Amino acid sequence: MPTKSNNTGGRGGKRPGAGRKPKGVAEKAANGNPGGRKLTVLDIPEIEGMEMPKPDEILSAKQKDGTTLKAAEIYERVWKWLDRIKATAYVSPQQIEQYAMCKARWLQCEEMTNELGFLSRHPTTNKPITSPFINIGSVFGARLICEDCGGFFGAKTWNSTSKYKRIVWQCNEKFRDKEHRCTTPHLNEDDIRARFIAAYNSLIPDRENIIDDCRRMMDVLTDTTEIDGKIADLLQEAEVVTGLTRKIIEENASNAMNQAEFSRKYKGYEDRHTAIRDKVEKLREQSEQRKAQADSISAFMFELHETDAPVTEFDSKLWLSVIDCVLVRHNGTLLFRFRNGMEIEG
User: Fold this and answer.
1) Three-state DSSP class for 223?
2) CA 258 vs CA 11, 138, 263, 264: distances in Å
3) Residue 169 main-chain phi, psi, to 5 deg
4) CB 322 within 8 A of CB 300
5) What's the pLDDT score for residue 110?
6) Residue 148 confidence (pLDDT)
7) Do the beta carbons of residue 110 and residue 320 sit within 8 Å?
């Protein structure tokens, strides 16, 4: 936006939002090709699937701890899934390799976090210690929520110096308010795992319908045509306001105006421009949130699609992929909220 000065400020290069108004996706589709030429419909044959290329050796490289990197396994799972939906010819093997490597490294980070927890440095000895600020060294961290106060559950060690030592999960805010203590009970990890398996297995009989609902939700979430149109209109309005501001600055520079009147008008344009900018930022944030929600549903849908039989053992990767949060109630029941919005009590 031009600065308030007596010179021709605001001419130091292209301004944000300047130029022709960008067309929305719907308008582009309605207009067809830019030149208005008659389009020729090409007869494109159906693309057949292809055999899975051999994964790069780095995807199954030996790690320092003696284990094998799981990227090759992830690569094969993704390829088989694409093959079932007849989409192997539309995705390059290099993209699948990149995805497999990223997910394998992410799983390694999660496994190390589960094993070691989040570390901090001791203030005097400088040795690594368990972080005193964050207690989410488990897949259950930042997932279990207290129904009373809305706080997270954290891992607590009971009888740490005796043979009866055990780890339980309870609300971190349970004893902070002596007059109004949370009444939600503590939980043990084996019980949480067993209830999760039961809740997840209850989805399998209706798996196909759930996956279809997920696809419809993703179609709605990824269609940002309306938001893009609003952003384009606001940017056009911002360009008009910028032009009015520049005009009044140039007018004041060439013919001295009443400064009180000039300040009033300038302040009005400035406030209007700020309001437009804030609206654009909110719309862009809304668009990003919808895309993130669609990605979350996609991860849930992929895991459910891969589950052919009831789960018998707890899988931390499955938990992280499908669970949004778990609400712990007063009576000890758990309300599992999955990433697609479904809720199941267990």
Assistant:
1) coil
2) 24, 67, 9, 10
3) -115, 125
4) yes
5) 74
6) 86
7) yes
Question: For residue 198, what pLDDT is reported?
Answer: 93
The DSSP secondary-structure symbol of 166 reads E
Which residue has tokens 């297995």? 201
Contacts of 296 (CB under 8 A, 6+ apart): 324, 339
- Contacts for 21 with CB less than 8 Å, ≥ 6 apart: 232, 235, 236, 239
The secondary structure of 44-62 as a DSSP string is PPPPPP-PPPPPPGGGGPB
- What parts of the chain have a pLDDT lower than 50? 5-8, 132-137
Residue the block writes with tokens 């007596």:
6
Give which of 337, 328, 333 is closest to 174, Cα–Cα: 328
pLDDT value of position 39 = 64
Please state the separation of Cα 341 from the chain's center in Å: 14
The angle formed by the CA atoms of residues 301, 304 and 306, to the nearest 5 degrees, is 110
> Smallest Cα–Cα separation from 287: which of 229, 216, 221?
221
Average pLDDT, the chain: 80
Q: Please tell me whether residue 84 adopts helix, strand or coil conformation.
A: helix
Q: Is 240 helix (H, G, I), strand (E, B) or coil?
A: helix
| Assigned token pair, 79 | 């390829």
Euclidean distance between CA atoms 60 and 72, whole angstroms = 5
**Tokens coding 233:** 């209109």
* Cα 159 to the center of its chain, rounded Å: 39
Angle between helices 93-116 and 71-84 (to 10 degrees): 130
Half-sphere exposure of 233 (CA within 13 A, CB side): 8
